[in-house]
């Protein structure tokens, strides 16, 4: 037999002392979560941007999620309720552009963006460590003052960081920086009425006709859903009736 593999430090920290299972805090479990995914094969730089974006939403996202080519968008929507996912952010690529889509699940709306430019977290870190005068704005420079003084609730590593003493804090940009252009808004989940389109403008008459088409589609969808529910109830009722009849016959002939 091979040598038993030891658990690493991260694996041990992810277990509790009693059951050996990961325990997530209650406020984290029930908080709104966001799922950040890629659609199709993307270049390494864009995949790194996805990783950076996930780090922004921690712990309210799955940082190490691996999307398989067989996964469809519906697969992620189907698990949204179980994992308290309220939004899905997806990155994709066409022949001419990189795109980002933000969806409110389960009913929309959906915002479609074109990715204009991005600075990765590691590149932002390099700019902060070695600032170039022309690239660092006044908003990126913090000066110590009363507004950034706090009383420490506990001892913290570092010179002079003692419990109950005042210490200055500074916000440091972590990145990434993303520049986006809003292209389209749909009122449903990746479908439905187009509320806004950057390139296509419609007249009031055209908008009225489209609204009527979408109204009929919603009505038809609701009708289909109701018919499916009625069919399920009917099948369930027949099964219960057959079961009760069989049970009654067994009782009449003395079978327990």
Quick overview:
The protein is of the alpha+beta class.
Task: Describe what you observe in this structure.
The protein is an alpha+beta fold and 256 residues long. The protein has 2 domains: 13-120 and 175-200, Rossmann fold (3-Layer(aba) Sandwich); 202-256. It has 6 helices and 8 strands. The strands form 2 sheets. The protein has a 6-stranded mixed sheet with strand order 1-2-3-4-7-8. A two-stranded antiparallel ribbon has the order 5-6. β3 (98-104) and β4 form a beta hairpin. The protein is extended, with a radius of gyration of 28 Å.
Helix/strand layout:
Layout (H helix, E strand, L loop, with lengths): L8 H5 L12 H4 L3 E6 L5 H14 L15 H6 L6 E9 L4 E7 L5 E10 L1 H9 L19 E3 L14 E3 L8 E10 L7 E4 L6 H49 L4
Parallel strand pairs: 1-2
Antiparallel strand pairs: 2-3, 3-4, 4-7, 5-6, 7-8
The structure class reads alpha+beta
Distance between the termini: 53 Å
> How many domains, as an integer?
2
Number of helices: 6
Strand share of the residues?
Answer: 15-25%
Shape: extended
Structure characteristics:
256 residues; two-stranded antiparallel sheet; 6 helices; extended; 6-stranded mixed beta sheet; Rossmann fold; alpha+beta; 34% helix; single chain
